[in-house]
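Exam prep: given the inputs below (a chain plus cytidine-5'-monophosphate), describe the expected output before reading on.
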Amino acid sequence: MSLAGKKILLGISGSIAAYKIPLLVRLLVKDGAEVKVIMTPTARDFVTPLTLSTLSKNPVLSVPFDPDDGSWNSHVELGNWADVMLIAPASATTLAKMASGISDNLLITTYLAAKCPVFFAPAMDLDMYLHPSTQANIARLISYGNFLIAPKEGELASGLCGAGRLEEPDEIFKILSSYFEKQLSLKGLSFLITAGPTIEAIDPVRYISNHSSGKMGYALALEAAERGARVTVVSGPVSIKADHPNITVIDVKSAQDMLDAADELFSTCNVFIAAAAVADYRPSVFSDKKIKKNYGNKQVAIELTTNPDILATLSAKKQQGQVVVGFALETNNALENAKIKLESKKLDMIVMNTLEDQGAGFQSDLNKVTMILRDGEQKETPLLSKSMIASMIIQTIVRSFPLQSQNL
Ligand code: C5P
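Solution:
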């Protein structure tokens, strides 16, 4: 696919592999992309700004402001401008600064301000690359949702042979092209996602709920929207916001409200993902007045009634061509229980996570899941940011099921 009109912010740091970047800039610009280059001070020793400004047709930026005329290169504006930021080559120092937020140059301040996806292509000597601190920094950057363009094995500038060679410019070009292509792969499709907790009122001031933050459901919504789908999130009360023009949020409180809202939209969606942590029970009686504290009673009981199972209810109405995905948060016999839910709720896929995975789950920005497909295929992810997990889940849905907008 053509990169016409795509805005690419290219950060170059100090590695000998910087000599390959003019070729990459040429490929990108020839394909119609708009390229702005930021160089770290050391990068300028490896490749000249004049070469890069000539090829990119834009001034090369290195410093936050020009000391002669005081003009400011706003890292925030640059970060907002880009559709994609690519840091290539990413030296060991630049990786470390990105991972720890040490923003002592324009490249890193812009990286921290960037709202767009960030790709980084490390290049350095073998020993530096294999050092645990470099590996830990790379793992951290991946966990923040950045995309690694892994270095290749081969002869290095030092004469050593091994991993650390910057990926070739034409391969980096292909990776960016396929990223933009993937972005639009869900155009014309409609996603319905439940997210967040539900709250079940006891009286006007009290309720029963759970710790769900909604982060996983919103990350899925963003991923589907970025790939071009129209997404409706039926959301319980959460503190996060959806920030994409393709996403509509319908705010609800109780499980019954969530079911009513989702039910109205279900027949016209291509994919339904139930990511909400729905309260299984609600108080049998709602008291419209605040229930008074009874000083005489040490124990008080609230009678509960079962809530409707939104996922099972909607899945039972599934039409041909629709895909239904559920989540299963398990504490024991995780796989077995998840498979039972996949069957009993007639799902196409279930995404299982356990509270046993340290750092994953409710409230956290990280998650670790196993995706189980109807045909028995299983895919386990490492502990990653929820946006990376969302990307893998959407990717799996796209690869495993034929999604066609004209089906519905
Ligand atoms: O049965 P369990 O609650 O473990 O199933 C979890 C899955 O079912 C999740 O996808 C959740 O969003 C969905 N669910 C639902 N309505 C309920 C309970 C769970 O949609 N009342």
